[in-house]
Amino acid sequence: MEQQNDRSSPPARLAPDTAEGHPFLRSVSSLLRSLSNRSTRSPDRTITHGPQKALNSFFEANMEEVFGIEDLPGKDNVGPAVKNKRKTSAPTSPGGCIDLTTDEPACSSAGKTPVQNPPEDEKKLSLISWNVDGLDTDNLGERARSLCSYIVLYSPDVVFLQELIPSYVLYLKKQAVSYTLIEGGEESYFTGMMLKKSRIVPYTTTKMMRNLLIAQVTFQGQELSLMTSHLESCKDNSAERMKQLRLITQKIKEAPDNVTVLFGGDTNLRDAEVAKVGLPSGVMDVWEKLGRQEHCRYTWDTKTNSNKRLPFACRCRFDRVYLRPAKREGVACLLPNHMALLGLEKLDCGRYTSDHWGVYCSFSAG
């Protein structure tokens, strides 16, 4: 376990490439410009907590317009706080589902003229990796809505999720209809992936190994192998965790040299364990590649995140993203250019989206 650090967690970075065609996103963009003009920026150009709180308040105020949602389905899978907040609404028709990347919310009034989104950067790939802590069912509806708000804001091509439960998956399927959702299991808790339909095309059967979910896809004509996992937790399970890491690195090495491999997940790894196992040649830890930025170091931080209410402070870099660029000559080389932590602000319920921070990364083809 990494040593405790007295530095407080810095604010979340906001992706510079937010789409502005959607009416809601235009409002977000306008708010961001206003906040940017008023806020004090640190040397690494992060936005201070005050503006971030204003952004969160904006999302809360507009959540019904954007999602038109109820809390999570399945009474047995949600906590009492969610049950108390559940609202009664008319059944939602298929047309009431919200496409998170369409021009106009599907639930908006008829007759409005859709606004065309500007074309996305064809050479840029973005992803979010997040352990959503579905096993903690308290305030799960509000926390799931928060996850969706980040998907709206960042519009990632790929989302790696850990600690999903069946009711959480049902909620995501209802709301994120512009994404293909791949489940790594059906019972208890499991991993999953969300792939933006307009940008990511699965082309072979997904492999669901015991500790690793793999999807072979194409992105702008480039072949990618996407991997996510949730490795064994707790300090005493170090040997099993390193065994699982060896399995992951072996699968990365087996990928053809014309394929780019992206792994993201809750590894529960300690630095000493990674050093002992070693990463294969050509595989990079994205956080390290981007300069080991302190504001992105701790993804499980009980000093700042109070969801678990532990009697001690623990700050660890459990959630990691690994990249092995394609090695074949003539194939575009994907390299990281940005990383940020998500979910650093408390929700109205007084809790965070998860006990883990989300990890946002973007990559550009060279």
Automatic annotation (TrEMBL):
Its cofactor is Mg(2+); Mn(2+). This is Tyrosyl-DNA phosphodiesterase 2. Its main location: nucleus. The keyword DNA repair applies. GO terms for biological process: double-strand break repair. The keyword Magnesium applies. It comes from Muraenolepis orangiensis. GO terms for molecular function: 5'-tyrosyl-DNA phosphodiesterase activity; metal ion binding; nuclease activity; single-stranded DNA binding. Pfam families: Exo_endo_phos. Coiled coil: none annotated. Keywords: DNA damage, DNA repair, Hydrolase, Magnesium, Metal-binding, Nuclease, Nucleus. Residues 128-356 form the Endonuclease/exonuclease/phosphatase domain. InterPro entries: Endo/exonu/phosph_ase_sf, Endo/exonuclease/phosphatase, TDP2-like. One of its GO terms (cellular component) is cytoplasm. It is found in: Nucleus, PML body. Residues 1-26, 71-98 are annotated as: Disordered.
